[in-house]
Specification:
The longest helix is centred in the first third of the chain and has 33 residues, at 14-46. The radius of gyration is 20 Å and the shape is elongated. The model has no long low-confidence stretch (mean pLDDT 88). It has five helices and no strands. It has one domain. The protein starts with a helix and ends in an 11-residue tail after the last helix. Helix 2 (14-46) crosses helix 3 and helix 2 (14-46) packs antiparallel against helix 5. It has 114 residues and is mainly alpha-helical. It is a multi-pass membrane protein. One of its GO terms (cellular component) is mitochondrial inner membrane. Belongs to the mitochondrial carrier (TC 2.A.29) family.
C-alpha cells in the first residue's frame, strides 16, 4: 500500500499509518473469510444431529454438499462473515499498530534482500 502511495511508513503520519493498518486488516480478514467459509459451513452442518444421514464423516460431508449445493455452501452467510472477520482483523491490526507506536517500537519491513 505504501508503494502505491509512493511513500514509506516513516514519511506518513500516524493517522495515515493507522488507516493503512486498518485497510490491510479489512483486506486480510475478507480474504481469510472467503477462503475458510466453505469448510466452516460444512463443518457446522456435519455437527448437527442427523445431518447427512448415517455413515462415515466423509460420506456425510458428501451427502450434505450434494443436498446443499456447492454454490450455496460457498456463499450462504458469506457477506455477514466477511463483515465480521474483516472488522475483527482490522481492529487487531489497528491495535497492533497503535501499541507499537505508543511503545516506540519500530516495525520491521519486508524487503528484497540484496
Amino acid at each position: 500500500m505504501y508503494n502505491s502511495l509512493g511513500k514509506t511508513a516513516a514519511q506518513c503520519g500516524a493517522g495515515l499509518n493507522l488507516g493503512i493498518a486498518l485497510s490491510s486488516g479489512v483486506i486480510a480478514g475478507v480474504v481469510s473469510a472467503v477462503i475458510s467459509h466453505p469448510a466452516d459451513t460444512l463443518l457446522s452442518k456435519v455437527n448437527k444431529a442427523g445431518a447427512g444421514g448415517d455413515g462415515s464423516i466423509v460420506s456425510r460431508m458428501m451427502n450434505i454438499t450434494t443436498e446443499t449445493g456447492v454454490v450455496k455452501l460457498c456463499t450462504q452467510g458469506l457477506g455477514a462473515r466477511c463483515v465480521m472477520i474483516g472488522t475483527f482483523t482490522a481492529l487487531q491490526f489497528g491495535i497492533f499498530d497503535s501499541v507499537m507506536g505508543a511503545l516506540g517500537v519500530s516495525k520491521f519491513q519486508f524487503h528484497k534482500p540484496s
